[in-house]
Write a structure and sequence with these properties.
The protein has nine helices and 15 strands. The protein is an alpha/beta fold. It has two domains: 7-96, no CATH class; 106-336, Spore Coat Polysaccharide Biosynthesis Protein SpsA, Chain A, CATH 3.90.550. The strands form four sheets. The protein has a seven-stranded mixed beta sheet with strand order 9-8-7-10-13-11-14, sandwiched between helices. A four-stranded mixed beta sheet has the order 1-2-3-4, with helices on one face.
Amino acid sequence: MSPTLTLNLSRESTSPISGEDGSLIVRYHHVTDPAEIPDAEALESDEAVVVGTFELAEALIAHGIDSAQIAVSSLPPSDPSYPGYVRDALSGNLTPLVPFCFDRSSLVILPTYNERQNLSAMINAIRTYLATDILVVDDNSPDGTGQLADELSRQHTSVHVLHRAKKQGLGPAYIAGFQWALTRHYQSIIEMDCDFSHATWDLPRMVHRSATADLVIGSRYIPGGGTENWDQRRRLVSRLGNAYASMFLGSTIHDWTGGFRCFRRELLAEMNLPAVKAKGYVFQVEMAWRACQAGAVIAELPIRFRDRLHGHSKLGWPTIFEAVKEVPRMYWRRSAYR
């Protein structure tokens, strides 16, 4: 049976209000014992839970607590030196006063095509939660995303840009980003969308888990995971896509198609990246399957996948047809994937 947790409501404290940045007060409840399941519905919008470890946070999330309402700190909120979080006035989410920093160097890869509306806010959000470098891989976006990325790289030394001559698909963009990262010896390499469908506050969870897993997958289809603001067609396509992949490749992974992932450099270095053929979203299936064939330690963390903030989804019929064709080929050619 999974461990359960209780909220110790007697240990309530508040974070300071910062008038300058428009943040709001937060009432914290410290998680103490694995004793009883906390009621996720009992938390008000201005309340959050504090845990001392990421492991306790994962147990809470698996029981339905939104990761946006969990603060991870080794200090109790009553400690005068508690660094704390604040609650953003616009989003309502917790934001740490200082971004998380880990021993392993990390790089977040953002493949972009017409993401000018999202890019600046996305980079700021990433830098709020995680001390990391960021690589924008732009496929010559006609809306000027690449030029904006260049401007942001001049403002922030942690932001880098890789320009590609034309749109060639998600897979080739990520492969180019992986190869760029490997030549620069980053240790944790993260892939995520640039449209806010992946929560930036989940980045520290991903990097922390990569200390003990070769591949960490943000999963919508394990306890605590889910999707928000999807129509029935998109839910059906996603479910059928994962069921189709599982039928051929096995049920070891619950979310074969998820695109929020963290690779250890050792795993990527072992893979034959130029041999990866998938161009669309089936690229995620192929990379996960190759990781399985390499004997990688794979972990899935529950995430809530939200619909994109601006723009339109790039999932179309060509991507679906590619998946229908390529997944069986992965199965039949599995012996060549090492």
